[in-house]
Every structure is written in C-alpha cells, then in structure tokens.
Amino acid sequence: MQDPRGPGSCSVNAVIFVHTVELQFVRHKTSKMKTHSHLSILWDTINVNIETVIEWSIVDQTSCSSSKEDSNYACVSHHSECMVPFTHVGYVCRCKSGYGGNPYISGGCLPDHGYSSRPRKANCSRWCGNISVPFPFGIEEGCSARKTFELHCSDTTLPILQTYGGLIDVTYINVSEGLLGIKYDSSFGEEIFNTILQSSEPQEPTLYVDPLESASVRWAVDSLTCQEAKKNASGYACVSIHSSCLGVISSNKSYVGYRCACLDGFEGNPYITDGCEDIDECKRTPGLCKGNCHNTVGNYTCTKCPDHTEYDITKMQCTPVRKQNLLLGIVIGLSSGFGMLLFGLIAIFLIRRWKRDVQEKLRRKYFRTNKGLLLEQLISADENASENTKIFSIQELKKATNNFDLARILGHGGHGTVYKGILSNQHVVAIKKSQIIREGEISDFINEVAILSQINHRNIVKLFGCCLETEVPLLVYDFIPNGSLFEILHHDPSNIVSLTWNDCLRIASETAGALCYLHSAASISIFHRDVKSSNILLDVNNTAKVSDFGASRTVPMDQTHLVTAVQGTFGYLDPEYYQTGQLNQKSDVYSFGVVLLELLIRKKPIFTAESGMAESLCNYFLLEIRSRQPKEIVAAQVLEEATEEEINGVASLAEKCLRLKGEERPTMKEVETTLQQLRMNRTNSSQVDPSAEQEMQGHQSMTMNLAGRTYNVASQRSQNACYSLEQEFLASASLPR
C-alpha cells in the first residue's frame, strides 16, 4: 500500500502475537558503512520500525480464583481487581474503573482526577479539515480534557482525523449524543478492533464503549457515576450552567461512566462554560403556537391573538378579522345556543328513560333467573313461610341502606359486603350483598330459603327474606349488635365487654338447644356443619344466636347421614367426618365440644404454644387432662367464678363430645340436658333471687350497649372462617329434598 509520506515510500502495518522476543544490540565500528545495493537512489535505505507490547504476569497461581486464597496475593490495593492476561498464564492486577495507580501496593489505586474541565493551552485549533473537534477532544497537546481524548490530525493535502496511532479514522464527533464516528480497516478483524477500543493511555480509564453500529462508538468523559463526579467540583465535566449529567451504559448492561448534555430548550457544548445556549423555538418552529409565540429562557409561551385578530394557519400568524354583520352574528349565536340546549335536554330525557327501561328489564330478567316465581309459589303454599319471609325489591333495600352508602357498611367478607339497613317499619336488619355465586346454586338457594324461613327458634338468627332482582341474590336477616362469642372470648383483655361464668353456661345451653332443634325438632333435619364460636352471635341481652348456614345440609327424616365433600373450619372439624366424608349430627357435636373448650380454657382452637409452634386446643386438652385436674388447665376467670363440680362437669362433657368415634359421642339433646342441669345446680346452690339475676343481666346488657360495639360479621369471618357470610343460608348442590 502507498504511504502518504511521499512517492517511493512503503509502509506495512502488521499485528503479530508472539510469546518470546529476542533483542540483540551490536556496537558498530565508527567508520561509515559502505552501501552495497543495486537499487536506485529511491530504494537505497530500508527503515524497519518494530513496535512491541510486552505482557507479563504473575505465574504463582493459575487463575484469579485460586490466587485470592494465597497469602502472597499481589492485588493488595483497595479498588483493585484480578484479571487473566491474553496469554491465559497466571494473573495480573489492575485498578478498577474510575481509579488509577499501582494495584500492587497498599493504597495504590486512587480516584481518577485526570479530567481537566478546561484546556490547558490557549487558542487551540478546533478543525481538522472539515471535521469539527470540540472540547473535551483536541488535536494538540493540552487542548483536550484528558489524554484519551487527544486525536491526531494528519498533515497532508487532505487532512485526516485519526486516533489510536492512525489505526482508526474519525469521521465526526457528536457532543450532544456522545457519539464518535469511526472508520477502520476491516482486515484487522473484530477481535483486534475490540482490543484497540478497550485499550487506553496509562492511568486513563476506558472511556470508549462497544459500538452501537459499525460507523460509531459511544464515549464517556469519566468512569464515575454522576453522584461521584459531582463531589469533585474541580474535575466535574458538566461546567455549562444549563447542562445535566447522564449515565453511559454499554450494551451488555455493565456500567461505563457519565457524559454531559444540555437541558431541554438549550443546545451547544455542555463541556465549556456557557456552552449551552437557549433555543429560540418560535423562530425554529413556525406555527408552534396557534397565536403569538414568545421565547423564554429554555422554553416558550403562547398567547391568544389580540382582539379583532385571528390566527391564519396559512400565514402562521395573527391577522385582522374581517368585519361582519353584528346583528346577524348575535341571531345566529342565540339560535344555535337555544337549539343545542333543546337538543341536549331531549337527549338527556331519552337516555334516562332508556336506562330506566333497561334496568327494569334487567331486574325482571334477574328475578326469573334467580327462580323468583318458584320461591313465590313455595312461600304462598306455606302460611308460616308467607308470614315470616318476604321477597324484597331492590328499591326497598336501596332505600333501607341509603343506596348502599359506605357509612352503612358493617364489614367486608371474602365474597361480599354486609350493610346495616332500616326498613320502612323501622326494623333494623343486616343485608348481605354478595359479589359472586357459583353456577347451579340458584335452585338450592331458593329451596334453602324456603326451608330456613320455616325455622322459628329464639336462639337462631332469623331470616326475614331476600331480594332476587340483582345478579346475585341479597339476603336480609336479623341484626345482631353485640358481635360474636369468638370476638368477646379472644379479644383484647382490656375490652370492657366480658362474660361471666353464668353467661358462659347460659350461652352454651342456648346454643346446644338451637342445634338440638335443628337436628330433631325442625320439620326436616339440618346439619349445621360449621359450628364455631364466631358463628354464635350475641344480641343486646347476650342471648346466643346461631348463624351462618352457608355450609349447612338438610337431611330427610329417614336418613342418618350424608356423603358430601368435606367442608368446615380448621380446629373445629370432626376427624371422623374428615376421614369418611359421612356427615351426621355427631359432627356438629364434635365442633360444639371445641366451643366448650374455648369457654373453659379461653384459648383459640388453634393457638400458639409457649414453644412458638401452632397447637390444636383439642389435642392440648385431651393430652393435659390425662395427667392434670381440669381446674389446673382452665382460665383464671373460670377458676375464680366456677365451682370445681361445674368445671369437672363441663370438662367431662367436652371430653365426651370430642371422642374420635361418633357413636361414642352424646346427642345434642343429651348435651343440652347436661348443661341445663349444671345451670340448675348452680342456681340452687347460690340461691340467687331470679329478679335480682334478671336485674344484673339487664345491667350487663346496658354496659355492653354503652361500649358501642357494632355488628361486624364480615370482619370476624375474614379472620377465622373458611367460608364467608355471603354464602350463609345457601344450600349445597345434589341434596335430596
């Protein structure tokens, strides 16, 4: 290839990797050597220039991972790192990016301070041919920000801007985007090119990043983050007032450094003082505003055209408005306004009427889908049901809840919300608004409502009716203000509401009577299947009300059990039912036995033991009762108020209810009889005047009312129940009727 230095000269560039280089220096005689050459005068001399890079490494260890475990590890400086050389023999040390110095001595790697925020030389040349060379780059010594940015401008007829010893030609420099246009000889190969880009001057960070495309590479002014760079005010590159710092990241997501850019609304060179100049957007972009455009520092503002002028999109400026007939304009304006007003009123009337008709059709559709006609027939066929159960319209329930006002919310369950409602007869009710219901459950829901409407027991939550004019039916039932037994037993001890031992015996007896009624006294047997303290609600007089029939099952009189999918609440679930899938009335007896343990021991069905592990209350009781007396494991309050005979009686009854085999457990009738006998014995032994006891209960009721407790069924369901209140009174599918 022809050398640009003139005719008759030739240069060959070659890169050769060798392992051994032998240099021999020979002292020649002082006499002038004679030249013996048959070449012409143009070729009488051959100059050989050899540039060598000698690489050395520490070969005590074969890899970086093994060398770090050696006591003679050479990379002792902070901010140093180990790397494998090109020969892949041994290891070498280097300072990390952003640091320079000697990594082989303690404290040898120091932060890079090699960046100069202004040229050290005045009157620097900034052009190489037709290529601009702005700061931080330079083509003369002392004109660049650091040695890495010093480029070479060839001194030929056609100047060429070069870097890396003339191996790469620079075609352009873009300061705003941080790009460097390059051109190189592709015969070097990609590996050698990457080696060149990754090399740098001694003590200089690697600032050139992998190429975005074949014609350009990215660069950074320093191998520091913006936060680190701003700490060194003298070496911070973004010296222009209206400039900002931007991070530079390579395509493989490894961090490189930072560069500078002018803020929005400014352009120029952010690396020199006052280099970022304001952009006049109004002149640069005609028609930017549909009115008058006013340039501001870094931005622009728009104002409307002055009076009697309008914006001309063709001329892109404000022009005078042509004079028109004022009266005609007023008439046209008033006519248009009146017409639009009339049209709007008519449209609003028609839209409201259309929405009302659509809602009415939708309500009728939901009523038919939810088997409203079937429920009406069932209710009308039974006189008792027709007196106790009502089908409410959605308008009645909206009025009762003030259109389902958020202030009327009593609690949120897993599948819906419970609202407090006041009916037109001033009766307070709880209205459950569910979100979803499974397909195929509507018929079971209707039949179950019809059955539950026949239940009339003072210790069972009363169902008032339902609403079928929504996608998911709404349930209306009695409002129980004092919450659940679970909340009172396991709430904060500082709670003002508490139960005496008399109250506990009475609540247990009332609950047992309600379950006995469901099992044998109702027109059709009903297995509750989810007996637990959170489903025993207390009214203003602390009277027990059994609730939540979402998991209940009805059984014909000629059957003793049902085979169903296992459902219930962990801690209360009958193990025999869990093993066999056969549901019978003894399953409710087992769950009631757990409730008796809660009244005695005042622990949750699943509680945290002293060891920190979760423990079953049932297992705890059955294990402790083998080696200890019942009075030794009951709660302190129970021990103070109850006699040893009462504690032993309730504990014995609970042990019988919790037997593994259902046939060994008592019936709910036997449980109720036992509890009533304990209450009677306690009354006889204390010889309390019934009127005084009634007065005391009234006083307790007043105290609980003053406590301001609210009915928050959905809240306690979300903490303790496997099934939400929104499924209450729903029957399961596939039950014989």
From TrEMBL:
One GO molecular-function entry: ATP binding
Q: Name one Pfam family in it.
A: Pkinase
List the subcellular locations.
Answer: Membrane
| Principal cellular location given in the protein's record | membrane
Q: Which UniProt keywords apply?
A: ATP-binding, Disulfide bond, EGF-like domain, Glycoprotein, Kinase, Membrane, Nucleotide-binding, Serine/threonine-protein kinase, Signal, Transferase, Transmembrane, Transmembrane helix
PROSITE patterns on file:
EGF_CA (PS01187), PROTEIN_KINASE_ATP (PS00107), PROTEIN_KINASE_DOM (PS50011), PROTEIN_KINASE_ST (PS00108)
Domain Protein kinase per the UniProt entry, residue ranges: 404-675
Binding-site residues, ATP: 433
Which Gene3D superfamilies did the record assign? Laminin, Phosphorylase Kinase, domain 1, Transferase(Phosphotransferase) domain 1
Q: Can you cite an annotated GO cellular component? A: plasma membrane
Topology term for the membrane = Single-pass type I membrane protein
Q: Where are the transmembrane segments?
A: 326-351
The reply on keyword Zinc-finger is no
Give the top-rank taxon of the lineage listed in the UniProt record for this protein.
Eukaryota
Q: Which GO terms describe its biological process?
A: cell surface receptor signaling pathway
The record ties this protein, via SMART domains, to: EGF, EGF_CA, S_TKc
Question: Which CDD domains does the record cross-reference, listed alphabetically?
Answer: EGF_CA
Which protein, by its recorded name, is this? Protein kinase domain-containing protein
Species name for this entry?
Answer: Hordeum vulgare subsp. vulgare
